[in-house]
Write a structure and sequence with these properties.
Layout lengths: L6 H17 L11 H9 L1 H21 L4 H15 L3 H14 L4 H9 L5 H21 L4 H22 L11 H6 L5 H14 L10 H24 L4 H20 L1
Length: about 260
């Protein structure tokens, strides 16, 4: 069976479309949904996060220029960032925390993830995942506009790169079906490293007096989500779509803490 000359480009475009529909609310028609497209979508996840962060960073700068109260500005920024991602990652975080908070076996934990109900652990996780970025962005608003923009972009970009690392080659899926099975093990490690280097470089201006702190925040966030992913592999055998959402939210929160400290 031969492949037409336009097929590789088509698969790349399909991957970009899949990434947009996975990480944003962009009204894009999906193309082919398969593992080659998933590889592109997960490898480029950081770009969607950078775009979301740049969008809400610009919003924060505009609201500050309009003399909006800092806490209100931060709340609006985080609210818009959540809406832009359809709240999908928060839902995944809640399901993951509920599952891990149970003392059931692997099958019980996976059943909890599939349930539409949110338990007390999940509610608490959502609260923390909203309050921490709000507090971090509130603390960033006294910096120059370019530092605010860089910090927001890096915070949300790092969260998506956490998903890239969670899908690297060798990472198994917890189930034979679903989003986790589609994307697990699709991203070559060099692609994840390249994405990390890009976001790490963009993090340098996020903390004006300490240029090293932004890159360190990126690495700390990825280390935290790597620990979560390793625990999930031991507990449920791999990743699911919900656990990817958890990595996004945890990575974003830790990165924002790191650049705001």
């Amino acid at each position: 069976m031969t492949t037409s000359p336009g097929a590789p480009r088509s698969r790349f475009v399909d991957g970009l479309r899949l990434g947009l529909t996975t990480f944003t609310i962009a009204p894009v028609r999906p193309g082919a949904v398969d593992r080659p497209a998933a590889r592109v979508a997960m490898a480029t996840a950081g770009a969607y996060g950078l775009a979301v962060g740049a969008l809400v960073g610009a919003l924060a700068i505009g609201l500050r220029a309009a003399d909006a109260p800092a806490l209100l500005t931060a709340a609006l920024v985080v609210g818009v960032a959540t809406l832009v991602s359809r709240g999908l990652h928060l839902d995944g975080l809640a399901d993951t925390v509920d599952a891990l908070g149970s003392y059931g076996d692997r099958d019980r934990a996976l059943a909890i993830m599939k349930s539409p109900e949110v338990g007390p652990f999940g509610v608490a996780a959502i609260v923390f995942a909203l309050v921490i970025p709000i507090a971090a962005i509130d603390g960033l608003l006294g910096r120059p506009w370019w530092a605010v923009l860089a910090a927001a972009a890096v915070g949300y970009g790092t969260g998506r790169i956490a998903a890239t690392w969670a899908c690297r080659v060798g990472q198994p899926a917890a189930r034979p079906d679903g989003l986790g099975a589609l994307v697990a093990g699709t991203v070559p490690s060099p692609a994840a490293v390249a994405a990390t280097l890009v976001v790490g470089a963009l993090a340098v201006p996020a903390v004006p007096d300490r240029p090293w702190q932004g890159p360190v925040a990126v690495l700390a966030a990825l280390a935290a989500t790597a620990a979560v992913t390793a625990h999930l592999r031991r507990r449920i055998g791999g990743i699911t779509g919900d656990t990817l959402g958890a990595c996004v939210e945890i990575g974003t929160a830790v990165a924002l803490i790191g650049v705001a400290w």
